[in-house]
From TrEMBL:
Its main location: cytoplasm. NADP(+) binds at I8, G9, A10, G11, N12, M13, A69, V70, K71, P72. The lineage of its organism: Bacteria, Pseudomonadati, Pseudomonadota, Gammaproteobacteria, Oceanospirillales. Keywords: Amino-acid biosynthesis, Cytoplasm, NADP, Oxidoreductase, Proline biosynthesis. NADPH binds at N56. Residues 5-98 form the Pyrroline-5-carboxylate reductase catalytic N-terminal domain. It is an enzyme of class 1 (oxidoreductase). It comes from Kushneria sinocarnis. This is Pyrroline-5-carboxylate reductase.
């Protein structure tokens, strides 16, 4: 029998997860989603066949897993009314909100003994190629860890971290990182246009090349450094381009950017704890 899942919030990431689960064969009637607006819920029910409601407390009462999928700034407002209802079944709690610590969640849910998993997915989960980092508190059983992992594997790969603070590193390397690659694609598109290519042609070439390179890196027995060298003929065109990146300090720029991302994630966590 499938575990009963309740999604508090039904935005893009929640839809990616339960949509991926349903596509993988998970029974739609074992999934409930909540939202503030009935029109949104009616659309979800029609498209996915899941259960829907505006009643958060009622939705969590019989759940085996509660996935908190609201914006970080709304998390306290959403969690505080749920404490009493969660005492009925004491489900596994999964949060996909950036910056909200397990201690904050436990405080707002009025129960430090709840099993809680923090999850940092990324937007490629929307197309089934996500990368998620997970951290579990010591109340989470082995069976619940396996369940949390299986849910997130419906939309991509899963990596566990052993310290909660490392979720911020996951944010820097995976959660926020799709934007880094979109930026590179955007820059390549502009460079192609500057050298005479039609905008649509330049964009298609840049996107397909990024897709192909990522697929090669994912499937190859070689590491990215080796794959890079395999494209670089001595004194050739690629080598000249890579030297330009090296002279501009690309590795240092990436390191600075990920550090800035991680620092901001830590700042957000402190800001949310003060609310």
């Amino acid at each position: 029998m499938a575990s009963q899942l309740t999604f508090i919030g039904a935005g893009n990431m929640a839809r990616a997860i339960f949509g991926g689960l349903i596509d993988s064969g998970y029974p739609a009637d074992a999934i409930t989603a909540t939202a503030r607006h009935q029109a949104t819920l009616d659309t979800l029910a029609a498209r996915y066949g899941i259960n829907v409601t505006t009643d958060n407390a009622g939705a969590v009462a019989d759940a085996d897993v509660v996935i908190l999928a609201v914006k970080p700034q709304l998390m306290r407002e959403v969690c505080e009314p749920l404490g009493e209802a969660l005492q009925i079944g004491r489900p596994l709690i999964m949060s996909i909100a950036a910056g909200v610590t397990i201690d904050s969640l436990a405080e707002w849910l009025d129960d430090a003994g709840l099993p809680i998993v923090r999850c940092m997915p990324n937007t490629p989960s929307l197309v089934g190629t996500g990368a998620s980092g997970l951290f579990a508190n010591d109340r989470v059983s082995d069976e619940q860890r396996q369940l949390a992992e299986s849910l997130m594997r419906a939309v991509g790969i899963v990596e566990w971290v052993e310290e909660e603070s490392l979720i911020n590193a996951v944010t820097a390397i995976a959660g926020s990182a799709p934007a880094y690659f979109f930026y590179m694609i955007e820059a390549l598109e502009k460079a192609g246009v500057a050298r005479g290519l039609a905008p649509a042609t330049s964009r298609r070439l840049a996107i397909r090349t990024a897709l192909g390179a990522a697929r090669m890196a994912d499937q190859s027995e070689f590491d990215p450094a080796t794959l890079k060298q395999q494209v670089m003929s001595p004194n050739g065109t690629t080598e000249r381009a890579i030297h330009c990146f090296e002279q501009a300090g690309l590795e240092g720029i990436v390191d600075d950017a990920t550090r800035a991302c991680l620092d901001r994630a830590e700042e957000l966590a402190r800001e949310l704890q003060k609310r």
